[in-house]
Write a structure and sequence with these properties.
This protein is mostly helical. It has one domain. Helices cover 80% and strands 0% of the residues. The chain contains two helices and no strands. The chain has helices at residues 6-31, 39-65. α1 runs antiparallel to α2 (39-65). The longest helix is centred in the C-terminal third of the chain and has 27 residues, at 39-65. The chain crosses the membrane at residues 6-23, 43-61. Keywords: Membrane, Transmembrane, Transmembrane helix. InterPro entries: CLC_0170-like (IPR049971).
Length: 66
């Protein structure tokens, strides 16, 4: 199993999730909406979680199983 680019995928998910949460926070500040659980917030947290799981998988496979 080739793991060379897996950490780039994890970084993409982490940065995309963080960016999505920051953009949603800014939109709520500008529009004056109450902070509610929107699909963008759930998607942002899901992307951050996916990125962390990919990083965990990458390091486990790279340092312990190979």
């Amino acid at each position: 199993m080739y793991l060379g680019y897996l950490h780039y995928l994890a970084s993409f998910f982490l940065l995309a999730g963080l960016g999505l949460l920051l953009v949603e926070k800014r939109i709520c500040e500008i529009s004056g909406w109450d902070k509610e659980k929107t699909w963008a917030m759930w998607l942002g947290w899901f992307e951050i979680l996916a990125g962390l799981l990919i990083f965990l998988m990458y390091f486990l496979f790279r340092h312990y199983f190979w």
